[in-house]
């Protein structure tokens, strides 16, 4: 048992129980004494924002984050505006649900010019900062593993996310550290230090060898090679003491009964985080 | 047709025709007017070094590199010594074949302490530098894509390879730039500049979406998202004007007749490199 991390910091990132509706996930958390949840927008869309809000408020759960905004790059200005408008809706939803932060998965490049796409990401975030401020919602830039650079996010390292965060010059924007995305980085601990005070979320899972899949590639903590406690301590030393989300995209786990997954997750959290 | 890159710079990295023996690959290159080859050690082992040398000499082919040394990290000192001894044999083979460079795939970590493994990589390379000097063989540190950090190489970015190269302080050691491994890197062009004068190899293939596989994930140039000419021009501006190896690990390509692959490779080289 790892006594360094309180069970009260555990948050269920809803994608871990993708087989569950929001109601099932909320009920599961309450039944299993999990005090926080990260909500995905496609689950909100299933029942509407009003009903989602009612579910969350009556459960007493904290909302550690809402997933996800981002997806800024697109080849035309009008399409980029569509993406920005969608991010504004995501900010409104996050505010309505009292979410601490909207997680930004910044999006892939529509063509081979990945550097141009990175500029569009910056412009996209810049354009939603005032709206996020008005709504009291923080924006968390989540660097994704470089293997997702072609189809999910051109922001691929914590170093890059830190440079982007600094260039935006707004305390409304911070970064998310997800161990699955960043564990391999030779400059990880320096970059966690640079992110001091700007870390808005900490996500855990594990990197199992061989990787079961590319998109659905994450495993339960303890099943892989990531030194999770070391990374957790580094983010704590640099000012992050908030919820630890368990975010696992894995078909085999999705095929299990959700209640079983939650028990397994709690045990693994206590032992390996 | 891209007129910037001469067809005489094309080299067949032998893994692209994994279905072929060394003799078949050498004959294929000669038949298709390809002037260089990169040889894999498991193919040398099939027929022995003497026969391999005879094949290469009588063909008149250049040997752009030998693949591969490396694999330094191991949990015991005796096992690390076994790896170092194997690297010395690889250096001897490279010298016998008049190879320009031995490519180093540095190896995964035997445990969760990836930073310790990086030290073992450094120690391993340090210990073989004098032997490489005596044999006139250059050592090329190849950073691998971060998705291989857990099972192939703890050296994951060109930045990290540059730091390692500089810390070794020997002109016997340089870096290899493989577009598949580095294309996503936000600091790629700065790091290519930092590598100026130390670039010992340039490898091409492409990143297709979705990726067909993790290990066997590479595609023919032109099939994916990588801006290959831009990266090629950057390595040229920073002093590399030697062979361009086509290195593709892909089951579908391996299942084709080798001659067909070579024709396709030449066409794609002319159009997309």
Please describe what this structure looks like.
The structure is a homodimer of 273-residue chains. In chain A, strand 5 (138-141), helix 6 and strand 6 form a beta-alpha-beta unit. In chain A, helix 1 runs parallel beside helix 3 and helix 4 packs parallel to helix 5 (114-134). Chain A has one domain: Alpha-Beta Barrel (TIM Barrel), CATH 3.20.20.150. Chain A contains 11 helices and 8 strands. The longest helix of chain A has 21 residues, at 114-134. In chain A, strands 1-2-3-4-5-6-7-8 form an 8-stranded parallel barrel, surrounded by 7 helices. The first copy, chain A, has 273 residues and is of the alpha/beta class. Chain A is 44% helix and 15% strand. Chain A has helices at 22-31, 41-47, 49-59, 77-96, 114-134, 158-168, 179-182, 188-194, 228-237, 251-254, 258-272; strands at residues 10-13, 36-40, 62-70, 101-105, 138-141, 173-178, 199-204, 244-246. The interface between A and B is medium-sized, with 32 and 32 residues.
